[in-house]
Amino acid sequence: YSKVEEYPVKDLISLHSKNLQAHAALFGLEPLRGDNPPTPILPSEEELVYINQLIKVYSEHANSDLLLEHIFKSEIYKEHLEGCRGEFYSAEGLKRFSRDVLPGEFDRLLVSVLAGIKRIAASPKHKNGMDKLETVLSAAAELQITNNPLSTRLLPADLPGACHQLVNDEKLKWLK
Q1: Where in the chain are the domains?
Q2: Those residues with Cβ within 8 angstroms of residue 41's Cβ, 6 or more apart along the chain or in another chain
Q3: Does this model's pTM top 0.70?
Q4: Cα angle for residues 55, 59, 61 (degrees, 5° grid)
Q5: Dihedral, CA atoms, 62, 66, 68, 74, nearest 10 degrees?
Q6: Which of 24, 39, 61, 164 has its CA 20 to 30 A from that of 125?
Q7: How far is it, in rounded angstroms, from Cα 25 to Cα 156?
Q8: What residues contact residue 172 under an 8 Å CB cut-off, 6+ apart?
Q9: How many other C-beta atoms can be found within 10 angstroms of the C-beta atom of residue 46?
């Protein structure tokens, strides 16, 4: 017992809180994912790339150049945009969880999602950007991701949200 040391509880808590990944591995615990970040009323700077792609899709679909303020007032596109933004922020919640608990796994998840939808996204059968967007998001929602430790933490909007993350990272486009 000469190697057993007394350690104050507050020091143990402090030590384990510094590395959640090691703590979870040591005790076999799965940390809670927590809530997704709230979707801001107006798009943030970090959303601009995928939002601009969606604006192009909506403009093509409407046969008219639309601005974001038109879309926010549109009976046709407003709810669709809100749904896409909710998916983006769901994936953003998973990304933040991964960063803190399973570093690098969100990027590996994006690689898996891209591999699962790439052929579908590249299909010449898409009639327009809206058709491509809807087909790819539906295919992403049906992907069976089992080779990633984040798979047990996935919410329904995460995989379609991963597509928006890929668009935001310029690894996927709805329109050329």
Answers
A1: 47-168
A2: none
A3: yes
A4: 120
A5: -40
A6: 164
A7: 26
A8: 114, 117, 121, 136, 163, 166
A9: 11
CA-to-CA distance for 168 and 88, rounded, in angstroms? 9
Which residues neighbour 106 within 8 Å (Cβ) at sequence distance 6 or greater? Answer: 94, 95, 98, 99, 150
Amino acid at 76: I
User: pLDDT tens digits, the chain, 176 residues: what are they?
Assistant: 677 777 788 877 777 766 666 666 677 667 788 899 999 999 999 999 999 999 999 999 999 999 999 999 999 999 999 999 999 999 999 999 999 889 999 999 999 999 999 999 999 999 999 999 999 999 999 999 999 999 999 999 999 999 999 999 999 999 98
- What is the distance between the alpha carbons of residues 152 and 174, in angstroms, rounded to a whole number? 29
CA distances 6 to 11, 54, 164, Å, are 11, 59, 50
Answer yes or no: are the C-beta atoms of 127 and 56 closer than 8 Å: no
